[in-house]
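Two entries, shown back to back:
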Amino acid sequence: MSEITRVESFKCPNCGAPIEYDGQGEKTVKCPFCGEPALVPAQLLPKESANRVYSSVDARQRVTRTSSGGAWGVTLVPLILILVVIVIVAIIAISNTTAKYARLQAPTVAAVVSTRAPTPTTVPTPSPIPPFAQNTLTFGSAGKAPGQMTNPYRIGVDGKGNVYVADYTGGRVQVFNANGKYLSSFTNGDLEYHLDGFAVDRKGIVTMTDHTAMLRFNGLTGEKLNALPVPPGTGVTEVAVGPEGGMAAILYPLRPDGSRLAPESVALYDASGKVLQTLKAPVSERSGSDEMALALAFDGNDNLYIVSASSNEVFVFGPDGKFINRFGSGGNGADQIQSVNFIAIDSQNKVYLSDARGIAIFDATGRFIRRFKIDDGGHGMAFDDNDALWVAQTASITRYTLGR
């Protein structure tokens, strides 16, 4: 029996003319109208051939799609790689920063969780500022035994630092070394003696006045040396000794009953006790009042300072007796003085005045410097070669070391 051939037809994809297909399995046939090859539809092909054809078609289509998107692929791949690199670098950087921060914070965390008690911080205590005048030595007590004092009134220091203390009554003078150790004593032989003036030079020569006479003694041995001349009918009160041994004394006319009269005069002596000149009313003619209470001191240049208890002023005279300056006033101000009684001058020619409120300090021109209090009032004052201030007090002697 002859094989029957099945003929199908389909439209040419190029020109649309009908193309007959005999089902022999050819995948493409030639269009009899346009002459172009045409792909046989899958439904007309045998099953096996159709699968092969469509597999090829799918492959071609996939290749075609991939090829059509190739430009985007070329562009996107580098961008994706760059983004991946950036992300990796960022992750590494964050990781390193985290590790470093953890290392830096580790000591702090350890300190916080530590159970050891913290070491207390020691706050330094500021050193107290020492007072200007420091009491560095006090010696003596009330009594009449050696080293004791009944009424220490005047004081002086020699060039070796020995301290001479004179009682107001009885004429007794006691000598101590620079540490306050008792050395010796003497009297002028007059138990009714009342001391008016007292001075000690660098050699230890003591000069004492008792209203009508001025006597000199060897301070260490008590030997009486001589009496300085005092005009008849004249009383003598205060006395001071200069750096070269010269002296000054305040003189007053006396009434028949022995009381003093104004005006005052000041006698200037050389080291041997000879009168060089006499200043007539050197203070009262300038203050305008009777000056019955005066005190004396020399500075290192042999200038003489006379302080007035009535006007509370200081009057300065040169070695030749000529007036140089005056300063000071009475009142309650820090730079004023009240009831001044004694005067002392240090090696820098600063002037120390003791009054009812302590001790006021002025420079050589009269400019006020400062004021300080002392422990127990004050009578006589004297400086040693170290500029320590020695003060005779109620029943003792005090040495003050002073600031600068």
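entry 2 starts here
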Amino acid sequence: MTSFKPSGWPTVIPRLFTPDAAGLVAFLRAVFAAEGEERVGAPAEMRIGDSMIMVSDGGGQRDAQAAFLYVYVADADKAYRTAIELGAEMIEAPIDTPYGDRRAMIRDRWGNTWQIATRRVSRS
């Protein structure tokens, strides 16, 4: 049976358009331990844990578009510090939320907002 999507890919994949795809790819690798490479003529297919994000310069066909993404990482404080060191703007310092996540919020140099979280308490 032929699948309607590539094997191992999720059904929904955020795609970020930016005039600096290489810079955003490097940021994703450093902050979120993303795996993947920038590709000429095609979007970068970046994996963060079990998720995927495409990063593209759009080949001049798209304007940069900002996104708002919630990302779970092993250590939210460490990812937050790394993002700030790489020039991200602090929106919210790491806090413990009432729903059990340790969470911070930053805006990267490309205009994307990231809530970076680590689960501290299991949900009931």
